[in-house]
Write a structure and sequence with these properties.
Layout: H1 2-28, E1 30-35, E2 40-43, H2 45-51, H3 55-58, H4 73-84, E3 89-96, E4 102-113, E5 119-128, H5 130-139, H6 150-166, E6 171-178, H7 181-188, H8 190-206, E7 214-219, E8 222-228, H9 232-247, E9 259-266, H10 274-290, E10 296-298
Parallel strand pairs: 9-10
Antiparallel strand pairs: 1-2, 1-5, 3-4, 4-5, 6-8, 6-9, 7-8
Helix pairs in contact: 7-8
Length: 299
């Protein structure tokens, strides 16, 4: 009997130490837990330190408080479908810390259950991959304008076409040229030309804030935007707004610039090839130039 009592006491100590270790591990890991409605019930101190919040600022709040505004909705849809069908979800997500800086992490999300198997909520474990993502971003970014570069354009355009088809949305390719750029470059010098490119890029970035929008500098004075979910009327309004904002830019020597835009819309279920999409958008741009420049032409 005495041996049994001692064994029980030892088991209690082991159980206590194990729970203590698990609690310490949880605090050191980038973890969080939510109830079935997505309200945060627990969050580790290390994760709070990473994103700059205090625990009390997050406990009881919707987990969507950490959602990045540019993260694709399709990713969250896939995540939710997985966990509501009793599956793990493993993938890369990003959030904004309290100072609005991007934080990237590889995350695993799984269901929490009680002893009887009833679902209590959801838990997430994360690995900080922000530095890795910054390095990746350098390789796909144009150093002068901070837009995406040609390499990333070639990589992403086919993926976005396929994604638009899966989502039954229109895919849009815009080709953009600065009118008379060579003349400005030759007359006022390369630094002047670089300043034009940078200011145009700032405008394009301002118009590509949605998760499905991408702006690129393809080389020289050639830019591109890819997007989805526009019809002809909407893309004309959107493109003309960009064109109008460019004309408002001011440069030394009282120079104002214009752009020409060629657009091709790949409509839902349309079978046009990638080669044809490029060809048609280039033809639309060429037509915009021939119409006197400072024009938008939709193929």
């Amino acid at each position: 009997m005495q041996d049994l009592i001692q064994e029980n006491e030892q088991l209690k100590i082991i159980n206590y130490e194990l729970n203590l270790f698990l609690e310490q591990f949880k605090e050191l890991s980038y973890s969080s837990e939510t109830d079935l409605n997505g309200f945060i019930t627990d969050i580790s101190q290390s994760f709070c330190d990473l994103i700059g919040y205090k625990k009390e600022e997050l406990i009881g709040k919707k987990h969507s408080i950490l959602k990045h505004p540019l993260e694709q909705e399709s990713k969250y849809k896939e995540l939710w479908e997985n966990i509501t069908n009793n599956k793990l979800w493993i993938g890369e997500l990003r959030c904004l810390d309290k100072n609005k800086n991007d934080i990237w992490y590889k995350t695993t999300i799984f269901i929490k259950r009680d002893i009887k198997g009833n679902i209590l909520g959801y838990a997430a474990k994360r690995q900080d991959i922000t530095d890795k993502k910054k390095l990746e971003n350098l390789s796909i970014t144009d150093t002068l304008t901070n837009l995406y570069n040609r390499r990333f354009f070639d990589e992403i355009v086919r993926k976005e076409i396929n994604r638009a088809r899966r989502m039954n949305k229109n895919f849009v390719l815009m080709m953009i040229d600065i009118d008379n750029f060579k003349k400005y470059n030759d007359t006022f010098g390369h630094l002047y030309g670089d300043n034009i490119l940078k200011k145009v890029a700032i405008v394009l970035k301002r118009f590509t804030k949605r998760a499905n929008d991408f702006a690129f500098r393809l080389g020289g004075d050639e830019f591109s935007i890819i997007s989805m979910d526009f019809d002809k009327d909407k893309i004309l309004i959107y493109s003309n707004k960009i064109k109008e904002e460019i004309t408002k830019l001011k440069f030394k020597n009282n120079i104002c610039i214009t752009i020409s835009i060629g657009v091709y819309i790949l409509e839902q279920n349309e079978k046009t090839s990638l080669k044809e999409i490029f060809k048609f958008s280039d033809e639309a741009l060429y037509r915009a130039k021939n119409l006197g420049k400072n024009q938008v032409v939709v193929y």
